[in-house]
């Protein structure tokens, strides 16, 4: 990457973080406003994709699926209504925070000029990384006692039994390409989304060449952002 391209990348990351701060649905005390998630997303997406003809395809996917209402998991991080969108937004924030120190370090390595990275790549990878969780969970009910000892029906999330899964990351890649077909040519973003779970989402045969994917700095960035969003911020 040229110095101008690097400067544009980091400037855009800072601008996106400013947009997040101005529109964030997450308060300093950890509370959040679900209705504020979508406007924050749209502001950040429009910043990097305002002239992209596929931006509407991305927004249509978010609106036509249960992305805004779905949980991020059944019993771990984000296991509540709206948890998926909130987790995704936190992953995007973490990716933007880590982008400058991570990429500056990457640019000093022998293969540092192999990839050209843009803020748009970061945003798309973060927004799409868990697309596979849309339509994945259903609500069921179990009998439990309330504080007075009375039996009540308590709702809980459960994975749907009819799901067919090619792998967490690969399912997200398929959905990403369906709403933004041109990304079929962006291998860097495809690899980041496909491998964002690290070894935990790989078959035994895939794990043999997994280290090759770590040469892609966007893979490393998205893994770091996903893990810290879930483990540090519980989102």
Identify the overall geometry.
globular
| Mean of all residue-level pLDDT scores | 87
Low-confidence stretches: none
Percentage of residues assigned to helices: 40-55%
Quick rundown:
It is built from nine helices and two strands; from the N terminus they run αααααββαααα. The radius of gyration is 19 Å and the shape is globular. Helices cover 50% and strands 8% of the residues.
Overview of this structure, please?
The chain has 235 residues and is mainly alpha-helical. 50% of the residues lie in helices and 8% in strands. The protein has 9 helices and 2 strands. The protein has a two-stranded antiparallel sheet.
SSE layout and pairing:
Blueprint lengths: L2 H21 L13 H13 L5 H10 L18 H24 L12 H10 L8 E9 L5 E9 L8 H12 L7 H8 L15 H4 L3 H15 L4
